[in-house]
Amino acid sequence: MRSTRARVRLGRWGMAVTLVLVAAGAALAGPPGAAVAASVPMGAEAWLQRIQQAAALSSYQGTLAYSVGGTTSSARVAHYCEGRQTYERLEQLDGESRLQYRHNDQVVTLWPAAKRAVVEHRDPVAQFPALPATSTTRLLENYEVQKLGQERVAGQDADVLLLKPRDRHRFAQRLWAHRDSGLLLRNDVLAPGGEVLESSAFVDVRLGGKAQPEQFLKPMKQLDGFRVLRPQAERTQLEAEGWVLSKPVPGFQLVSCTRRPLDITGSDSDPPLQVVQSVFSDGVAQVSVFIERYDAKRHPKAMGTSVGASHTVMARRGDWWLTVVGEVPMATVQQFEAQLERKR
């Protein structure tokens, strides 16, 4: 089951698993199509662009809380943007002690008790408080944007927006954006009945500030006494790996495909087992499809699980094992699994 947990750690984009806040490097852009623009309120595009730009360009420090299924985890974050340079420190406050430092796309994760360090380069994957770097056209094709009013979050005035899904393939999202900067202060994922499935939010936050680069760069370089792991990931294409979706899942587009070690700690095997991860996005929600060789010793029987908004399907496909994870309805996850076909 360890390899299953590793796949889920790689697949979850919310704070519950990685608690890594990677602000996307590009803002939402592009005018909506005429058919969509006629059905959305004026200013919807501007609101989404503002949220994305704030995540990419703002400096902030604070405490984050993530709640799902009655369980809450938290982290302390310091995030600074100076020109094209981004620095970040993230400290997990629950469970095993973990620190993470980032300078642009270079990330160093430290487990002090285990004296283990993982050094890797990451693409700028969107996570709270960012939205995926995609066009507003794509997002507005899948969601209707409504302004609900104004509230306070972490002592800050915020505008409240609702992203209402246009079909049953995705969940609604409620966003609280800082009134002055646009920084996303809270994000709830809602079930069809309106109940909160997951919530990511700042408990306290301070905007602005100036980075002291050495406070981030020094811990990333001084790794004496740590077992240093450098997992290698390479970009690939789903078709090049011999797979294809026989029919697109409505609203979702492939945004990345990577071959990487299944367990970045290197504890499962040496050399590490490999997994192909394909990420699909609808402009807000993301679904990860993991493909690896089937191993009867490591893989359980086919199953589906649900935790909050996150749904997972695991199934055998001949000599292969598929894991599909996404913060979308179970039927959407099942559709990805059913339509994935082996071409060679």
TrEMBL record:
The organism's place on the tree of life at top rank: Bacteria
Gene3D superfamilies: Lipoprotein localisation LolA/LolB/LppX, MucB/RseB, C-terminal domain
InterPro entries from the UniProt entry: MucB/RseB_C (IPR033436), MucB/RseB_C_sf (IPR038484), MucB/RseB_N (IPR033434), MucB_RseB (IPR005588)
Biological process per Gene Ontology, one example term: regulation of polysaccharide biosynthetic process
Annotated MucB/RseB N-terminal domain residues: 44-218
Stated name of the protein: Sigma factor AlgU regulatory protein MucB
Subcellular compartments: Periplasm
Signal sequence coordinates: 1-29
Presence of keyword Signal: yes
